[in-house]
Amino acid sequence: xxxxxxxxxxxxxxxxxxxxxxxxxxxxxxxxxxxxxxxxxxxxxxxxxxxxxxxxxxxxxxxxxxxxxxxxxxxxxxxxxxxxxxxxxxxxxxxxxxxxxxxxxxxxxxxxxxxxxxxxxxxxxxxxxxxxxxxxxxxxxxxxxxxxxxxxxxxxxxxxxxxxxxxxxxxxxxxxxxxxxxxxxxxxxxxxxxxxxxxxxxxxxxxxxxxxxxxxxxxxxxxxxxxxxxxxxxxxxxxxxxxxxxxxxxxxxxxxxxxxxxxxxxxxxxxxxxxxxxxxxxxxxxxxxxxxxxxxxxxxxxxxxxxxxxxxxxxxxxxxxxxxxxxxxxxxxxxxxxxxxxxxxxxxxxxxxxxxxxxxxxxxxxxxxxxxxxxxxxxxxxxxxxxxxxxxxxxxxxxxxxxxxxx
Length: 407
Hints:
The protein is α/β, with parallel strands linked by helices. It has helices at 16-30, 43-47, 85-97, 109-124, 151-172, 191-194, 219-233, 269-280, 291-296, 303-321, 372-378; strands at residues 3-8, 36-39, 51-53, 100-107, 130-135, 179-184, 209-211, 236-241, 285-289, 327-335, 340-347, 390-391, 394-395.
């Protein structure tokens, strides 16, 4: 019987543990004789031989459904090219030590690349392995899949938070703050910022400007628009992607620091936009950065998102048991109203190192709002609530009891 290795990778979400639940529960049902091992802090745990033995855990797997973050730890670690045989020989020796025949890596774009490398290295080394990537990213930028688990909950958090903040600003704008800026994640794709459009409805405008990387930033047009907002509504609320780009395609804010995958560290967009406004107008302003809050908010997670996260985990288990490798379960949208979806399979060669951006036909002509077509795509993903248990007035997140393998 082949054993199983699972790991979480990259920036975690409020529902990544739900995918782990889907995977583990399906494997326990379909392959009860397989032992399940989990990397501590992603694939780093496999490399450093720090692997949890799930059979030693006595608490119910259902705890995974309520917990945000990564229950087992995550990492940002770029694997070398498969030509570096010594590295992969050592890695596969560790897999062999645990009799691993099924490898699951739960993450986004960079994680898809990692899983693809593992699959290709296994073929090169003649090691029998099914390597399956499980989709996850709040950025919603994975190619091929209609949407990515983690995004729906982040979208729900941003739309809710900015709507509430807008009502706060509106109540004080005559004599106090007139501009509020919320900076959200999104390096090359503006899906999270676009979700702020869901705060608006036919009768009320709570978010007035949405700035995304897909639209080159025009400072003069932006400032003119903010002025019109204040004149028409009394205030202006702006949601901006951290990856906003200027008219030359360069990040509007970027540092010299890079992560292990070579990505520039972003941040500081909100205060830069605030300074831009203060240089032109005497509007009192405030800004905020949603940062980790947007991706960890399990207390307001989308029920749709949770169910999709579970489903891709279950599908990944069945794909591996069917002998598939170098693949990922993807979400396919069947219809918007009623919202219907299914899970299918796609090759990682079509997903790894590729990005899905916001379509231009989702973006308004002036570049500052999201059209009806975009709202129709986004809205089903935030539907439904699934509140965690509360204790003493705050959510109660109980971890599994994890034990490292003695191998």
